[in-house]
Amino acid sequence: xxxxxxxxxxxxxxxxxxxxxxxxxxxxxxxxxxxxxxxxxxxxxxxxxxxxxxxxxxxxxxxxxxxxxxxxxxxxxxxxxxxxxxxxxxxxxxxxxxxxxxxxxxxxxxxxxxxxxxxxxxxxxxxxxxxxxxxxxxxxxxxxxxxxxxxxxxxxxxxxxxxxxxxxxxxxxxxxxxxxxxxxxxxxxxxxxxxxxxxxxxxxxxxxxxxxxxxxxxxxxxxxxxxxxxxxxxxxxxxxxxxxxxxxxxxxxxxxxxxxxxxxxxxxxxxxxxxxxxxxxxxxxxxxxxxxxxxxxxxxxxxxxxxxxxxxxxxxxxxxxxxxxxxxxxxxxxxxxxxxxxxxxxxxxxxxxxxxxxxxxxxxxxxxxxxxxxxxxx
Length: 378
What we know:
This protein is globular. By secondary structure, the protein is mostly helical. It has twelve helices and no strands.
């Protein structure tokens, strides 16, 4: 298991990586569905907290595999086997999502997560054996993962499902492991490959929004909700997803991955970006349910479940991809105004449609600004 070159030409996602992502769709879909149920029942605070905790487990397991594969994907039999073990752990996690959100029962989630992380530690031990130049780094990864997993198991054994405080401490330890390990020696991750992998996961979470939206609209039609109510919701959801896709993939992500520090900030920042994208679909389902007379939220509360994640996504797309320059100010202003107006759409009569229109106008404005910047350059 030798390190791959960070400037390797024609580096793209493999079939195994695509299969890995496909299986993660199950976990994301289960989480979005359970989150929508919590919101519809009026348990907003409980639902948001549970969603944030479970999504961290899904995102972190995916992210660790992605960065490791970028540096050490040998595609041999042991590598494939250990990756399939991680996929099995992801499916176990997916099976426990509903119990975690609705009943605070993290038993299945914990064991599925531990299975994934132990397989990941095994991969790092293989890399340490084969790559003397980065052996210290790889051993730090393996040791850090094993210690934190002992912490997760001990937390569960001693406290049952535990409390938020212990979760935050262990999650912070997880985040610290790569920073500590990479100080020994930098792994040879590939900027364009990483950008592509993150783009593929963005498609997953946006696709989940489309699935949730179509399911909610179908339910509304079957409930004989007036077309004048359903159509604006469907149109707003469609415009929003189209715009969020355009805004994200209009960025030059590999340029933000020039150094380890910026790459870590970019990679870690995607936790909230991914979570907000997946939550958008749940928010649309809540609003469709509200239009059908279901749910315990008020109109404005239901609207906020949609407008807030969209505003977060828009803000983070700009923050994570921003490069300071004299031409960045107009784009900064446009994004800031869009975030404010999207949040204000919470109080309109048609918040979902208003959000979709605002997101579309933002996309058009960004294209105009980019065109002017390009025209000024020699």
